[in-house]
Design a protein that fits this description.
The chain is an alpha/beta fold and about 900 residues long. The chain has 28 helices and 28 strands. The protein is about 40% helix and about 15% strand.
Length: about 900
């Protein structure tokens, strides 16, 4: 974690020194010296992170590095705020009045820089006293022990108890089939899933099956330990050579032949040739267990001859990218958690092993099911916790005590060490920037569905995202999320109609271990207790408001970067009076659904605030001097009582997301955009703006909104017919637009024919209002996945113009006044969800065989002339949900 803090600070310092050199003045040398010291420390950090668990002195040094890196980052932020404030002051009179204050501020920052520079130098010197650079290999086992571990890991796996093979029979049959099927090609089979799902257990039982032993001429099981192999695979051929030596030893051992004496001295080429010669005319099966690196297959694939003998190679991995990196022609099998009944059976087998029927006592069933629910179908966790509980007294009180202390048990109880170790391997393999992003999920409660868009904006606000040329920060953050999902660190809980991640969560057991790491590192702390005063160097705080009095001490407020309040008691309100200028380094303030009504004026003193969420609060008014929040990136006041925005909104130079109206498109299309809000003049000058949702269409806004060429989402309400051509002219300039919503005023017509070249990347389109005909450009939207038409009252055949679009969602509400909807064969090849609502004259729906091949959900609501079921409904074999009202 400390290496992450240092890397982020170095990135910020480099940007500062390159881009802001003219502003730094005398401070340039100070920042340069700090940067050089941090760079020298970074070289020791990687090894120190690996060794800190075994050394209290190293652990203390890593903590000091992290703290000093955070201090440097705060000082950089404060210095840039001071410089920006100076630059904004205009006029001699204002400058003279503020001169004493400016001198004092500059002296304070200069003094702080000197202290931090001394602290950085002292921490750097301390690393030399620990002699990190003199004993880099201390954290590794010697080569002999590694050889033993690799060579015997497959043998050790054979001692898995049969009790642990529950709910895997179908997976076992599939794997046996792929191994023995009549295909002469060399085939790679990848078994993918998060740590603890039973990948190794499954492969072990199939690998040791007598059918497999007879089917293949030779076999080898090679485990790839993360703590040694992965790093070398990335940096040199050492790890690959060790893999090959282990494989050769397996082959020779099976034939009871002595291993060559010179095996240790052979290089990669010699070892590879020996493997090729051995396998040349054999049908072989090789298991590569727990593969971490994508590079592995590219480096060793040449030693496995494709000899048309039906040879097989099995990968087990936690990373989807590793599984698919082997190329086409193989099998990628994603292992899923156990079903509820199988999870219960496994838990009872492990917990009540001495009962002949493995049955749970009636008095303990409720408690036992809570444990099973916590494990979320993860066999490793079920087996470990079952083993823990079998030694406990069979009383409800004792079981509740263990359940309530499960966080502590997972981190400290030796019986659960295997669970902790498996998950720590996954965490340790993350690059520094993904470690921060993963631990950030700890700010949310257990099982809380984390929304993708919100998480992405939070990561950007926190500064976790490393810029990539040609990509928006949010796009890079989306890549981070995808990587965490592919690494099985984050689970997808809901997707939208196009299959894109909508909400996600962290597996309960992994989440508890993440919370332990997070609290130990002071990265994030959750508080859900009685009245107290919170102190200490905590960077992120999640507070569960139960109406008790929580005081935030000064030491806490100084270091706090993010503050989340979760409303758990609907009868109590929350006061923001604690949020004052003491929180000057606060970046994130999230009060969603909290019953607070006022925002204190001191909020504008939070110069570093980048994310302000007041969604679904009772707040009525924003501070008039909100323009002082120069770093604000996201302002969310959806479903709040805010009716008007202060004029200062248009003076926020870094604003990226302005979210104003109810986000209820999914549940109530008819009210979409009804609560649009006027925005102050000049909003079109904020070049960084990406989301503008949803705003009332005023003439000047419609005319100038095209200046926002980087805008990704625009929702406009109350559009007049005469303003349609002007809006079209602005939309043509917004080439990055992904989502567009336009709603006409009551009894006015949408006039959008003037849009000659629509945004080519547009994915979601909502049009609410009377249309004389569908816009001519609609059929050319090659990336459109969501289309909603409301109150269009069209008489023309809508489907004829849009049937070839790659739509995943189509919603028609009061949009069509014809009598027939005819879905022809081949139409809407990707549609997942279809909503037909209040089509008042519709009396016939025909679905030909081959139409809507992927449809999963269909809603037919208040189409009162429709007396018969759709003809051809039997052809929709993929339909899962059909709602008639």
């Amino acid at each position: 974690m400390a290496d992450g803090a240092v890397n982020f600070v170095l990135d910020k310092l480099t940007t500062l020194l390159l881009q802001k050199a003219s502003l730094l003045g005398d401070a340039y040398g100070e920042f340069e010296e700090i940067k050089l010291e941090l760079e020298s420390m970074r070289s020791f950090l990687k090894d120190a992170e690996r060794r800190k668990e075994r050394s209290e002195s190293v652990q203390a040094w890593v903590r000091q590095v992290r703290e000093v890196a955070n201090q440097v980052e705060d000082t950089v932020d404060e210095f840039m705020h001071y410089k920006d404030t100076q630059r904004d002051k205009k006029g001699l009179k204002e400058f003279v009045i503020s001169l004493p204050k400016n001198i004092a501020a500059r002296q304070k920052i200069s003094s702080k820089l000197q202290k931090i520079k001394a602290t950085v130098h002292e921490v750097s010197e301390r690393s030399k006293r620990y002699a990190f650079d003199g004993n880099i290999d201390e954290g590794r086992s010697n080569n002999a022990s590694i050889d033993w571990w690799w060579q015997h890991q497959g043998e050790l796996s054979n001692f898995i108890e049969e009790d642990e093979i529950v709910g895997m029979e179908e997976n076992r049959r599939n794997l046996l089939k792929w191994l023995t099927e009549d295909d002469p090609r060399r085939t790679i089979i990848s078994i993918v899933g998060m740590g603890g799902l039973g990948k190794t257990t499954l492969v072990t039982k199939v690998y040791s099956d007598h059918t497999i032993k007879k089917h293949f001429d030779c076999s080898a099981w090679i485990s790839v330990p993360q703590s040694y192999g992965v790093e070398e695979l990335r940096e040199s051929m050492i790890g690959v050579e060790e893999l090959l030596r282990s494989m050769i030893k397996e082959f020779f051992k099976a034939e009871q032949v002595m291993v060559p004496n010179n095996l240790r001295s052979m290089n990669y080429r010699q070892l590879g040739e020996m493997v090729i010669d051995y396998l040349h005319q054999k049908r072989y099966v090789i298991v590569l267990d727990d593969v971490w690196s994508i590079d592995l297959w590219s480096r060793i694939r040449g030693v496995f001859p494709d000899n048309n003998c039906s040879s097989r190679i099995i990968f087990t991995t936690r990373n989807v990218n590793v599984a698919i990196s082997v190329g086409p022609g193989g099998h990628v099998h994603r292992l899923e958690p156990l079903r509820e009944t199988d999870a219960w059976t496994l838990f009872c087998k492990k917990t009540f092993w001495n009962d002949p029927g493995h049955s749970c006592p009636k008095a303990l069933e409720k408690s036992a099911r809570l444990f099973v629910e916590k494990c979320e179908g993860l066999p490793l966790a079920i087996v470990a916790i079952g083993g823990l509980m079998c030694s406990r007294n069979k009383t409800v009180v004792e079981w509740k005590k263990v359940y309530d202390s499960l966080n502590w048990q997972l981190s400290n109880n030796p019986m659960l060490e295997r669970v902790k170790g498996i998950f720590m391997l996954s965490f340790n393999d993350l690059p520094f920037y993904l470690k921060h992003c993963f631990l950030y999920c700890c700010v949310f409660r257990d099982g809380y569905p984390i929304k993708r868009k919100k998480l992405v904006r939070l990561w950007v606000a926190e500064g976790f995202i490393i810029e990539r040329k040609g990509m928006a920060m949010e796009e890079v953050a989306e890549d981070y999320l995808t990587e965490l999902i592919f690494r099985s660190m984050i689970q997808v809980t809901e997707t939208n109609d196009a299959g894109r991640v909508k909400t996600c969560t962290v597996h309960d057991v992994m989440g508890k271990l993440a919370v332990t790491i997070s609290e130990k590192e002071k990265f994030c702390v959750s508080y859900d207790g009685p009245e107290a005063t919170l102190e200490g160097k905590i960077q992120r705080l999640s507070l569960y408001n139960r109406g008790v009095n929580i005081r935030l001490g000064r030491t806490l407020s100084h270091d706090l970067r993010s503050f989340f309040v979760f409303q758990t008691d609907v009868c109590c309100s929350f006061s923001l009076s604690a949020v004052s200028s003491n929180f000057k380094f606060l970046r994130v303030l999230d009060l969603q659904e909290v019953l607070t009504e006022t925002i204190p004026g001191a909020l504008v003193n939070l110069f570093n605030l980048r994310y302000l969420n007041l969604r679904e609060t009772k707040v009525k008014e924003l501070p008039k001097s909100i323009e002082r929040l120069k770093n604000l990136q996201t302002l969310d006041v959806r479903n709040s009582n805010v009716k008007r925005l202060p004029t200062g909104i248009s003076k926020l130079p870094k604003l990226r997301h302005l979210l104003l109206c109810p986000d209820n498109f999914r549940n109530s299309e008819s009210s979409y955009f009804l609560c649009g809000m006027q925005v102050p003049a000049g909003i079109w000058n904020i070049k960084s703006l990406q989301t503008l949702s949803c705003v009332e269409a005023e003439e000047e806004l419609i005319q100038k909104v095209g200046n926002l060429t980087d805008l990704k989402r625009l929702d406009v309400t109350k559009l007049r017919t005469v303003d349609g051509p002007m809006l079209c002219n602005s939309i043509q300039r917004m080439t990055s637009l992904l989502r567009l919503g336009v709603m006409a005023r009551t009894d006015e017509e949408l006039q959008l024919e003037a849009l000659l070249v629509p945004p080519s990347f547009l994915q979601k389109l909502t049009l609410v209002g009377k249309l004389s005909r569908l816009p001519h450009w609609l059929g050319s939207l090659a990336n459109l996945t969501h289309l909603y038409l409301g109150s269009s009252r069209l008489e023309e055949d809508i489907l004829l113009s849009i049937h070839a679009l790659p739509l995943a969602f189509l919603g028609l509400k009061q949009a069509y006044e014809g009598r027939l909807l005819h879905f022809k064969a081949g139409w809407f090849p990707k549609l997942n969800k279809l909503n037909l609502i209040e089509l008042i004259r519709l009396d016939t729906v025909i679905i030909e065989e081959g139409a809507l091949p992927r449809i999963r959900e269909m809603y037919i609501i208040r189409c009162q002339q429709l007396k018969l079921l759709p003809q051809g409904i039997e052809h929709l074999t993929s339909l899962q949900k059909w709602h008639l009202e």
